[in-house]
Design goal:
CATH topology: TIM Barrel
Number of strands: 13
Structural class: alpha/beta
CATH architecture: Alpha-Beta Barrel
Number of domains: 1
Largest sheet: 8 strands, parallel, barrel
CATH superfamily: Luciferase-like domain
Number of helices: 10
Order of helices and strands: EHEHEHEHEHEEHEEHEEEHHEH
Radius of gyration: 20 Å
Distance between the termini: 8 Å
Length: 340
């Protein structure tokens, strides 16, 4: 395991039981947690994007703010739903945030999961072409986004511009060199992992995937990663790809940890349907004393296959407790797994 970061969904709820009671709380606490994680030595701060929900949504103001407050930690998403995105405007936003952070963005994008409203992307102004699906639209937006991130000119310049232009066709600005190689695809199936490899994207695999053969979650996820690496090699890309997996992992080192997570009620994979036709397998959570955690995680085949581990954090428990969760893993568990 080369890198360990955290992944926050940025939930907020106006409830006395939540430490994150407003959208403002969610955003500002996300920045504070990223700063704390960097100070603790973590490698990444990642954020999930959901629309029409009391969670983090528009990611680029947050990413830019985190970039301005930190200096070393990777800053990313897991994932941005490409059904909702204007790929050209997104390329401008991403370029700006990446330049502010000094080239530390790691953008996870995907087709997205079922959302809070029916076909929410329609409210963002998108319509499906005849014979196409929302997944087709997401992949088309992705391909356009990847193309413009190359930084090549494509737009015909005005012969009488307001400001002088460089020669030739114009590209989007600001352009951030190298960002194209720091785009990740969040994949729930083996087929989309292979597609991501063919397009030269890194791979993010979450705590759920399509149940494709009835094997345990971590075994199926490891198979997905191996299929991705084989497709990457076959595509002839020159750089080494990166692969992340997400896990809910809690080291029980104090009474508060045991009160929150010591009941052991999610120690097995579960099966469910994320839509009318897609059977999914949801990976187990891990909560145990550090020595037991090390033994359990050493048997997780997908963690062994990946180079990056993202720890999903219960952000509504507050910045201080989540910093403790991260520190406990980095201190008591990660070294035994080969981290640093």
């Amino acid at each position: 395991m080369k890198k360990i970061g955290f992944l926050s969904f940025g939930h907020w709820m106006p409830s006395p039981q939540s430490e994150t009671r407003s959208a403002s709380d969610a955003l500002l606490q996300s920045i504070d947690l990223a700063v704390a994680a960097e100070e603790l030595g973590a490698d990444g701060a990642y954020f999930r994007v959901h629309h029409f929900a009391r969670q983090l949504a528009s990611p680029f103001p947050l990413l830019a703010a985190v970039g301005a407050r930190t200096s070393r930690i990777e800053i990313g998403t897991a994932v941005i739903d490409m059904r909702y995105e204007n790929p050209l405007y997104m390329a401008e936003d991403a370029g700006s945030a990446d330049l502010i952070s000094g080239g530390r963005l790691q953008l996870g994008i995907s087709r997205g999961s079922p959302e809070q409203v029916i076909d929410g992307w329609r409210y963002f102004g998108y319509q499906l072409g005849e014979g196409t699906t929302a997944s087709d639209m997401a992949r088309h937006h992705t391909e356009v986004f990847l193309d413009v991130l190359k930084g090549e000119g494509f737009a015909e310049p005005n012969p009488r511009p307001m400001f002088p232009n460089p020669p030739g066709a114009l590209r989007l600005e600001p352009h951030s060199e190298g960002l194209r190689e720091r785009i990740w695809w969040g994949s729930s199936s083996n087929a989309t992992a292979v597609w991501a490899a063919q397009l030269g994207m890194n791979l993010q695999s979450s705590t759920l995937k399509d149940d494709e053969n009835g094997q345990p979650f971590h075994v199926q996820q490891a198979e997905q990663i191996r299929a991705y690496r084989e497709a990457w090699k076959a595509a002839g890309h020159q750089r080494e790809p990166r692969v992340s997996v997400s896990r809910s992992i809690f080291a029980l080192v104090g009474d508060q940890d045991r009160a929150y997570f010591g009941r052991g009620n999610k120690e097995a994979d579960t099966i469910g349907f994320i839509d009318d036709t897609t059977r999914a397998i949801f990976g187990r959570s891990y909560a145990a004393e550090p020595d037991a955690l090390v033994r359990q995680l050493a048997e997780d085949e997908a963690i062994a296959e990946a180079d990056t581990l993202l720890l999903t954090v219960p952000n509504q428990l507050g910045v201080a407790y989540n910093a403790h969760v991260i520190e406990s893993i980095l201190t008591h568990v990660a070294p035994a797994l080969g981290w640093r």
